[in-house]
Design a protein that fits this description.
The protein folds into four domains: 87 residues, SH3 type barrels, CATH 2.30.30; 57 residues, no CATH class; 98 residues, MgtE N-terminal fold, CATH 1.25.60; 114 residues, Roll (CBS-domain). Helices cover 34% and strands 22% of the residues. A hairpin with an 8-residue loop joins β3 and β4. It is globular and about 75 Å long.
Length: 423
Protein backbone atom coordinates (compact mmCIF):
# COMPACT_ATOMS: atom_id res chain seq x y z
CA UNK A 1 0.00 0.00 0.00
CA UNK A 2 1.30 3.45 -0.90
CA UNK A 3 0.88 5.93 1.92
CA UNK A 4 -0.47 9.42 1.37
CA UNK A 5 2.22 11.92 0.32
CA UNK A 6 4.67 9.15 -0.75
CA UNK A 7 6.11 9.32 -4.26
CA UNK A 8 5.90 6.68 -6.97
CA UNK A 9 8.15 7.13 -10.00
CA UNK A 10 6.17 6.24 -13.06
CA UNK A 11 8.92 4.47 -15.00
CA UNK A 12 9.02 1.91 -12.18
CA UNK A 13 5.38 0.91 -12.57
CA UNK A 14 5.35 0.68 -16.38
CA UNK A 15 5.18 -3.04 -17.15
CA UNK A 16 4.05 -4.10 -13.68
CA UNK A 17 1.29 -6.72 -13.56
CA UNK A 18 -2.19 -5.51 -12.60
CA UNK A 19 -4.03 -7.93 -10.32
CA UNK A 20 -7.68 -7.98 -9.30
CA UNK A 21 -9.23 -8.40 -5.84
CA UNK A 22 -8.55 -12.17 -5.75
CA UNK A 23 -4.95 -11.81 -6.96
CA UNK A 24 -5.45 -12.90 -10.58
CA UNK A 25 -3.43 -10.99 -13.15
CA UNK A 26 -5.59 -9.14 -15.69
CA UNK A 27 -2.86 -7.29 -17.61
CA UNK A 28 0.10 -4.93 -17.30
CA UNK A 29 0.59 -1.20 -16.85
CA UNK A 30 1.44 0.43 -20.18
CA UNK A 31 1.11 4.12 -19.32
CA UNK A 32 -0.28 6.71 -16.91
CA UNK A 33 -3.00 9.16 -18.03
CA UNK A 34 -3.02 12.68 -16.63
CA UNK A 35 -4.36 16.10 -17.52
CA UNK A 36 -3.25 19.64 -16.82
CA UNK A 37 -5.20 21.85 -14.42
CA UNK A 38 -5.85 25.55 -14.17
CA UNK A 39 -4.74 28.06 -11.50
CA UNK A 40 -1.25 26.61 -11.05
CA UNK A 41 -2.43 23.28 -9.63
CA UNK A 42 -0.44 20.11 -10.19
CA UNK A 43 -1.47 17.89 -13.11
CA UNK A 44 -3.93 15.26 -11.93
CA UNK A 45 -3.46 11.56 -12.62
CA UNK A 46 -6.69 10.18 -14.06
CA UNK A 47 -5.77 6.53 -14.33
CA UNK A 48 -3.67 3.81 -15.91
CA UNK A 49 -3.58 2.39 -19.41
CA UNK A 50 -3.62 -1.38 -18.99
CA UNK A 51 -2.74 -3.86 -21.69
CA UNK A 52 -4.74 -7.07 -21.44
CA UNK A 53 -3.43 -10.44 -22.53
CA UNK A 54 -5.23 -10.02 -25.85
CA UNK A 55 -3.12 -6.85 -26.30
CA UNK A 56 -6.21 -4.67 -26.11
CA UNK A 57 -5.65 -1.54 -24.07
CA UNK A 58 -8.20 -0.33 -21.53
CA UNK A 59 -8.44 2.50 -19.01
CA UNK A 60 -8.29 1.83 -15.25
CA UNK A 61 -9.37 4.87 -13.16
CA UNK A 62 -7.15 5.70 -10.18
CA UNK A 63 -10.19 5.31 -7.93
CA UNK A 64 -9.92 1.56 -8.67
CA UNK A 65 -6.25 1.36 -7.64
CA UNK A 66 -6.05 -0.14 -4.15
CA UNK A 67 -2.27 -0.40 -3.80
CA UNK A 68 1.00 -0.02 -5.68
CA UNK A 69 4.00 -2.11 -4.70
CA UNK A 70 7.38 -2.75 -6.38
CA UNK A 71 5.97 -5.98 -7.85
CA UNK A 72 2.36 -5.22 -8.80
CA UNK A 73 -0.60 -2.85 -8.95
CA UNK A 74 -3.71 -4.12 -7.17
CA UNK A 75 -7.17 -2.90 -8.14
CA UNK A 76 -10.65 -3.19 -6.65
CA UNK A 77 -14.01 -3.61 -8.31
CA UNK A 78 -14.87 -4.06 -11.95
CA UNK A 79 -13.20 -2.08 -14.71
CA UNK A 80 -14.60 -1.13 -18.08
CA UNK A 81 -13.07 -3.39 -20.72
CA UNK A 82 -13.87 -1.08 -23.63
CA UNK A 83 -10.80 -0.09 -25.64
CA UNK A 84 -8.99 2.98 -24.29
CA UNK A 85 -9.54 6.10 -26.36
CA UNK A 86 -7.37 9.06 -25.60
CA UNK A 87 -8.99 12.50 -25.30
CA UNK A 88 -7.43 15.60 -26.85
CA UNK A 89 -6.63 17.14 -23.45
CA UNK A 90 -5.02 14.06 -21.93
CA UNK A 91 -1.29 13.44 -21.53
CA UNK A 92 0.28 9.99 -21.52
CA UNK A 93 3.27 10.26 -19.21
CA UNK A 94 5.40 7.55 -20.79
CA UNK A 95 4.47 8.20 -24.42
CA UNK A 96 4.40 12.00 -24.30
CA UNK A 97 6.84 13.08 -21.60
CA UNK A 98 9.50 10.51 -20.73
CA UNK A 99 12.71 11.02 -22.73
CA UNK A 100 11.44 14.34 -24.09
CA UNK A 101 14.19 16.92 -24.59
CA UNK A 102 13.59 20.30 -22.96
CA UNK A 103 15.46 23.56 -22.52
CA UNK A 104 16.68 26.06 -25.06
CA UNK A 105 19.51 23.85 -26.32
CA UNK A 106 17.50 20.63 -25.92
CA UNK A 107 20.35 19.03 -23.96
CA UNK A 108 18.24 18.13 -20.97
CA UNK A 109 15.66 15.40 -21.13
CA UNK A 110 12.94 14.15 -18.83
CA UNK A 111 14.27 10.96 -17.28
CA UNK A 112 11.31 10.16 -15.01
CA UNK A 113 8.22 11.70 -13.41
CA UNK A 114 6.75 10.88 -10.02
CA UNK A 115 3.18 10.94 -8.79
CA UNK A 116 1.96 11.44 -5.23
CA UNK A 117 -1.24 10.33 -3.55
CA UNK A 118 -2.66 13.54 -2.10
CA UNK A 119 -6.02 12.19 -0.96
CA UNK A 120 -7.72 8.82 -0.86
CA UNK A 121 -7.03 7.35 -4.31
CA UNK A 122 -6.40 10.79 -5.77
CA UNK A 123 -3.00 11.32 -7.34
CA UNK A 124 -1.05 14.24 -8.80
CA UNK A 125 2.23 14.58 -10.67
CA UNK A 126 4.87 15.92 -8.30
CA UNK A 127 8.57 15.66 -9.23
CA UNK A 128 10.46 15.44 -12.50
CA UNK A 129 13.85 13.75 -12.83
CA UNK A 130 16.07 15.40 -15.46
CA UNK A 131 19.28 14.20 -17.03
CA UNK A 132 21.69 16.34 -19.03
CA UNK A 133 23.39 15.01 -22.14
CA UNK A 134 26.35 17.36 -21.72
CA UNK A 135 26.97 21.08 -21.50
CA UNK A 136 24.88 23.45 -19.47
CA UNK A 137 21.18 23.14 -20.11
CA UNK A 138 18.46 25.59 -19.33
CA UNK A 139 18.12 24.14 -15.83
CA UNK A 140 21.82 24.48 -15.08
CA UNK A 141 22.58 20.75 -15.05
CA UNK A 142 25.77 19.89 -16.88
CA UNK A 143 27.91 16.91 -17.78
CA UNK A 144 26.64 13.43 -17.16
CA UNK A 145 25.78 13.79 -13.51
CA UNK A 146 23.09 11.80 -11.74
CA UNK A 147 19.50 12.81 -12.57
CA UNK A 148 18.42 16.05 -10.90
CA UNK A 149 14.92 16.19 -9.41
CA UNK A 150 12.85 19.36 -9.79
CA UNK A 151 9.23 20.34 -9.22
CA UNK A 152 6.72 19.81 -12.01
CA UNK A 153 6.30 23.62 -11.98
CA UNK A 154 9.72 23.96 -13.63
CA UNK A 155 8.65 22.00 -16.72
CA UNK A 156 6.85 24.18 -19.29
CA UNK A 157 4.96 21.22 -20.77
CA UNK A 158 3.24 20.66 -17.41
CA UNK A 159 2.02 24.23 -16.95
CA UNK A 160 -1.29 25.36 -18.41
CA UNK A 161 -1.10 28.92 -19.65
CA UNK A 162 -4.06 31.28 -19.35
CA UNK A 163 -6.78 31.18 -21.99
CA UNK A 164 -10.24 29.86 -22.84
CA UNK A 165 -9.43 27.00 -25.18
CA UNK A 166 -11.14 23.60 -24.77
CA UNK A 167 -8.01 22.43 -22.92
CA UNK A 168 -8.34 25.30 -20.42
CA UNK A 169 -12.03 24.68 -19.87
CA UNK A 170 -11.53 20.95 -19.35
CA UNK A 171 -8.72 21.71 -16.90
CA UNK A 172 -11.03 24.01 -14.94
CA UNK A 173 -13.76 21.37 -14.92
CA UNK A 174 -11.50 18.89 -13.11
CA UNK A 175 -12.08 20.74 -9.83
CA UNK A 176 -15.73 21.70 -10.33
CA UNK A 177 -18.97 20.04 -9.28
CA UNK A 178 -21.09 18.44 -12.03
CA UNK A 179 -23.79 21.11 -11.65
CA UNK A 180 -21.21 23.86 -12.19
CA UNK A 181 -19.79 22.07 -15.23
CA UNK A 182 -23.34 21.82 -16.60
CA UNK A 183 -23.74 25.57 -16.15
CA UNK A 184 -20.53 26.16 -18.13
CA UNK A 185 -21.71 23.86 -20.92
CA UNK A 186 -25.08 25.61 -20.94
CA UNK A 187 -23.37 28.99 -21.48
CA UNK A 188 -21.00 27.92 -24.28
CA UNK A 189 -21.51 28.81 -27.93
CA UNK A 190 -22.27 25.77 -30.14
CA UNK A 191 -18.78 25.53 -31.71
CA UNK A 192 -17.03 25.82 -28.35
CA UNK A 193 -19.48 23.37 -26.78
CA UNK A 194 -18.75 20.75 -29.45
CA UNK A 195 -14.99 21.11 -28.95
CA UNK A 196 -15.24 20.85 -25.15
CA UNK A 197 -17.54 17.83 -25.33
CA UNK A 198 -15.04 16.06 -27.59
CA UNK A 199 -12.27 16.73 -25.07
CA UNK A 200 -14.16 15.68 -21.93
CA UNK A 201 -13.87 12.14 -20.61
CA UNK A 202 -17.06 10.08 -20.62
CA UNK A 203 -17.54 10.08 -16.84
CA UNK A 204 -17.30 13.86 -16.45
CA UNK A 205 -19.57 14.43 -19.44
CA UNK A 206 -22.12 11.95 -18.10
CA UNK A 207 -22.23 13.63 -14.68
CA UNK A 208 -22.68 17.04 -16.31
CA UNK A 209 -25.44 15.83 -18.63
CA UNK A 210 -27.41 14.61 -15.61
CA UNK A 211 -27.49 18.22 -14.38
CA UNK A 212 -28.66 19.78 -17.68
CA UNK A 213 -32.27 20.57 -18.64
CA UNK A 214 -33.99 17.69 -20.44
CA UNK A 215 -34.01 19.35 -23.87
CA UNK A 216 -30.27 20.06 -23.63
CA UNK A 217 -29.61 16.49 -22.52
CA UNK A 218 -31.36 15.18 -25.62
CA UNK A 219 -29.63 17.68 -27.91
CA UNK A 220 -26.18 16.90 -26.53
CA UNK A 221 -26.49 13.10 -26.53
CA UNK A 222 -27.99 13.20 -30.03
CA UNK A 223 -24.99 15.19 -31.32
CA UNK A 224 -22.53 12.47 -30.26
CA UNK A 225 -21.64 9.61 -32.54
CA UNK A 226 -23.59 6.51 -31.58
CA UNK A 227 -20.68 4.62 -30.04
CA UNK A 228 -19.69 7.48 -27.77
CA UNK A 229 -23.30 8.25 -26.85
CA UNK A 230 -23.64 4.66 -25.63
CA UNK A 231 -20.42 4.99 -23.61
CA UNK A 232 -21.64 8.22 -21.98
CA UNK A 233 -25.04 6.71 -21.16
CA UNK A 234 -23.25 3.78 -19.54
CA UNK A 235 -21.46 6.22 -17.21
CA UNK A 236 -24.71 7.87 -16.12
CA UNK A 237 -26.74 6.67 -13.15
CA UNK A 238 -29.10 4.01 -14.56
CA UNK A 239 -32.23 5.94 -13.54
CA UNK A 240 -30.98 9.12 -15.24
CA UNK A 241 -29.96 7.15 -18.33
CA UNK A 242 -33.43 5.56 -18.46
CA UNK A 243 -35.15 8.95 -18.19
CA UNK A 244 -33.03 10.26 -21.07
CA UNK A 245 -33.52 7.20 -23.28
CA UNK A 246 -37.30 7.45 -22.84
CA UNK A 247 -37.19 10.82 -24.60
CA UNK A 248 -35.25 9.53 -27.64
CA UNK A 249 -36.83 8.02 -30.77
CA UNK A 250 -37.46 4.30 -30.23
CA UNK A 251 -35.02 3.13 -32.90
CA UNK A 252 -32.25 5.41 -31.59
CA UNK A 253 -32.87 4.26 -28.02
CA UNK A 254 -32.69 0.59 -28.98
CA UNK A 255 -29.50 1.12 -30.98
CA UNK A 256 -27.85 2.77 -27.96
CA UNK A 257 -28.96 0.00 -25.61
CA UNK A 258 -27.58 -2.62 -28.00
CA UNK A 259 -24.19 -0.89 -27.96
CA UNK A 260 -23.97 -0.62 -24.16
CA UNK A 261 -22.34 -3.33 -22.06
CA UNK A 262 -24.98 -6.04 -21.37
CA UNK A 263 -24.97 -5.55 -17.57
CA UNK A 264 -25.36 -1.78 -17.89
CA UNK A 265 -28.07 -2.07 -20.54
CA UNK A 266 -30.03 -4.60 -18.48
CA UNK A 267 -30.24 -2.16 -15.54
CA UNK A 268 -31.61 0.54 -17.82
CA UNK A 269 -34.05 -1.83 -19.54
CA UNK A 270 -35.49 -2.88 -16.19
CA UNK A 271 -36.11 0.74 -15.24
CA UNK A 272 -37.79 1.41 -18.60
CA UNK A 273 -40.49 -1.10 -17.63
CA UNK A 274 -41.91 1.32 -15.05
CA UNK A 275 -43.76 4.58 -15.48
CA UNK A 276 -41.57 7.62 -14.94
CA UNK A 277 -43.44 9.03 -11.93
CA UNK A 278 -43.44 5.82 -9.90
CA UNK A 279 -41.03 4.37 -7.35
CA UNK A 280 -39.79 1.89 -9.98
CA UNK A 281 -39.21 4.63 -12.52
CA UNK A 282 -37.26 6.77 -10.04
CA UNK A 283 -35.17 4.13 -8.31
CA UNK A 284 -31.52 3.31 -8.76
CA UNK A 285 -30.71 -0.42 -9.10
CA UNK A 286 -27.36 -0.01 -7.30
CA UNK A 287 -27.94 0.48 -3.55
CA UNK A 288 -25.67 -0.98 -0.85
CA UNK A 289 -26.72 -4.63 -0.41
CA UNK A 290 -25.32 -7.02 2.23
CA UNK A 291 -25.78 -10.69 3.04
CA UNK A 292 -27.45 -11.74 6.29
CA UNK A 293 -24.06 -12.78 7.70
CA UNK A 294 -22.38 -9.40 7.19
CA UNK A 295 -20.92 -7.54 10.17
CA UNK A 296 -21.06 -3.86 11.04
CA UNK A 297 -17.41 -3.56 10.00
CA UNK A 298 -18.22 -4.96 6.54
CA UNK A 299 -21.22 -2.66 6.19
CA UNK A 300 -19.22 0.44 7.09
CA UNK A 301 -16.50 -0.57 4.63
CA UNK A 302 -19.14 -0.72 1.89
CA UNK A 303 -20.69 2.67 2.64
CA UNK A 304 -17.22 4.28 2.56
CA UNK A 305 -17.19 3.73 -1.20
CA UNK A 306 -16.56 7.24 -2.51
CA UNK A 307 -18.62 6.62 -5.63
CA UNK A 308 -21.78 6.46 -3.48
CA UNK A 309 -23.92 9.55 -3.07
CA UNK A 310 -24.54 10.65 0.55
CA UNK A 311 -28.15 9.52 0.18
CA UNK A 312 -27.27 5.98 -0.96
CA UNK A 313 -24.60 5.73 1.75
CA UNK A 314 -27.13 6.54 4.48
CA UNK A 315 -28.69 3.05 4.50
CA UNK A 316 -27.72 -0.55 3.78
CA UNK A 317 -30.12 -3.28 2.70
CA UNK A 318 -29.91 -6.87 3.91
CA UNK A 319 -30.93 -9.60 1.45
CA UNK A 320 -30.49 -13.25 0.66
CA UNK A 321 -28.24 -14.00 -2.34
CA UNK A 322 -27.94 -12.97 -5.07
CA UNK A 323 -26.79 -9.59 -3.81
CA UNK A 324 -27.38 -7.69 -7.06
CA UNK A 325 -30.79 -6.33 -7.95
CA UNK A 326 -33.20 -7.97 -8.34
CA UNK A 327 -31.83 -9.66 -5.23
CA UNK A 328 -32.85 -12.70 -3.27
CA UNK A 329 -35.44 -12.25 -0.53
CA UNK A 330 -35.32 -8.78 1.01
CA UNK A 331 -34.76 -9.03 4.79
CA UNK A 332 -34.66 -5.39 5.90
CA UNK A 333 -32.76 -2.11 6.08
CA UNK A 334 -30.28 -0.60 8.54
CA UNK A 335 -29.47 3.10 8.89
CA UNK A 336 -25.76 3.96 8.67
CA UNK A 337 -26.17 6.14 11.75
CA UNK A 338 -27.17 3.00 13.68
CA UNK A 339 -24.12 1.15 12.35
CA UNK A 340 -21.87 3.86 13.76
CA UNK A 341 -23.18 3.19 17.28
CA UNK A 342 -22.57 -0.56 17.27
CA UNK A 343 -19.47 -2.77 17.80
CA UNK A 344 -17.73 -3.78 14.54
CA UNK A 345 -18.45 -7.50 15.03
CA UNK A 346 -22.22 -7.08 15.46
CA UNK A 347 -24.28 -8.76 12.75
CA UNK A 348 -26.06 -6.20 10.58
CA UNK A 349 -29.16 -8.40 10.37
CA UNK A 350 -29.71 -7.86 14.11
CA UNK A 351 -30.03 -4.09 13.64
CA UNK A 352 -32.92 -3.89 11.16
CA UNK A 353 -35.36 -0.98 11.30
CA UNK A 354 -38.52 -2.92 12.13
CA UNK A 355 -40.79 0.07 11.45
CA UNK A 356 -39.70 0.68 7.85
CA UNK A 357 -42.07 -0.80 5.30
CA UNK A 358 -40.61 -0.88 1.76
CA UNK A 359 -42.09 0.81 -1.29
CA UNK A 360 -43.58 -1.13 -4.18
CA UNK A 361 -42.39 -0.28 -7.70
CA UNK A 362 -45.80 0.95 -8.90
CA UNK A 363 -46.38 3.45 -6.09
CA UNK A 364 -46.95 6.94 -7.55
CA UNK A 365 -44.87 10.01 -6.80
CA UNK A 366 -47.45 11.38 -4.36
CA UNK A 367 -47.22 8.24 -2.22
CA UNK A 368 -43.45 8.13 -2.45
CA UNK A 369 -43.07 11.74 -1.30
CA UNK A 370 -45.42 11.11 1.65
CA UNK A 371 -43.39 8.01 2.52
CA UNK A 372 -40.17 10.06 2.70
CA UNK A 373 -41.85 12.73 4.84
CA UNK A 374 -43.39 10.15 7.20
CA UNK A 375 -40.16 8.28 7.89
CA UNK A 376 -37.75 11.26 7.60
CA UNK A 377 -35.69 9.40 4.99
CA UNK A 378 -33.20 10.28 2.28
CA UNK A 379 -33.30 6.79 0.71
CA UNK A 380 -35.96 4.06 0.67
CA UNK A 381 -36.07 0.42 -0.52
CA UNK A 382 -38.24 -0.73 -3.44
CA UNK A 383 -39.35 -4.36 -3.17
CA UNK A 384 -41.14 -6.46 -5.83
CA UNK A 385 -44.06 -8.86 -5.53
CA UNK A 386 -41.71 -11.83 -5.05
CA UNK A 387 -40.06 -10.17 -2.06
CA UNK A 388 -36.83 -9.26 -3.87
CA UNK A 389 -35.09 -5.88 -3.58
CA UNK A 390 -35.41 -4.08 -6.93
CA UNK A 391 -33.57 -0.90 -6.03
CA UNK A 392 -33.77 2.23 -3.90
CA UNK A 393 -35.28 5.69 -4.35
CA UNK A 394 -33.26 8.67 -3.12
CA UNK A 395 -34.68 11.99 -2.00
CA UNK A 396 -32.94 13.87 -4.82
CA UNK A 397 -34.78 11.71 -7.36
CA UNK A 398 -38.07 12.51 -5.62
CA UNK A 399 -37.37 16.25 -5.69
CA UNK A 400 -36.24 16.07 -9.30
CA UNK A 401 -39.63 14.61 -10.29
CA UNK A 402 -41.64 16.98 -8.09
CA UNK A 403 -40.08 20.16 -9.52
CA UNK A 404 -41.25 21.59 -12.88
CA UNK A 405 -39.75 19.98 -15.98
CA UNK A 406 -37.68 23.05 -16.83
CA UNK A 407 -36.40 23.81 -13.32
CA UNK A 408 -32.75 23.19 -14.30
CA UNK A 409 -33.01 25.55 -17.25
CA UNK A 410 -34.64 28.25 -15.09
CA UNK A 411 -31.90 27.85 -12.49
CA UNK A 412 -29.16 28.21 -15.12
CA UNK A 413 -30.81 31.25 -16.69
CA UNK A 414 -31.06 32.88 -13.26
CA UNK A 415 -27.36 32.19 -12.57
CA UNK A 416 -26.45 33.66 -15.95
CA UNK A 417 -28.55 36.77 -15.25
CA UNK A 418 -26.87 37.25 -11.87
CA UNK A 419 -23.41 36.99 -13.49
CA UNK A 420 -24.35 39.63 -16.08
CA UNK A 421 -25.67 41.95 -13.35
CA UNK A 422 -22.48 41.54 -11.30
CA UNK A 423 -20.39 42.27 -14.38
Amino acid sequence: MVAKDSEVFISRIIGLPIVDAVGDQMGRVKDVVCHLRADGMAPRVKGLVAELFARARIFVPMVRVRSISPSQVAILGQVDTRRFQRRDTELLVSADLLDRSIGRERRTRIFDISMTQVRNREWELSSVALRSSGGAGRFGFGGRSEPQVVSWRQIPDLILRTGRTPAHLVAEFSDMLPADIAQELHDLEPDSLAAVVRALDDETLAEAIEELPEDEQIELISALDTERAADVLAEMDPDDAADLIKDLPAEVAEDLLQRMEPDEASDVRRLLMYEEFTAGGMMTPEPVILDTGASVAQALANVRNESLTPALASMVFVCRPPLETPSGRYVGAVHTQRLLREPPTTMVASLLDENLEPLTPDEPLTQVSRFFATYNLVVAPVVGTKGQLLGAVTVDDVLDHMLPDDWRGDQMDEAEAIEMTDA
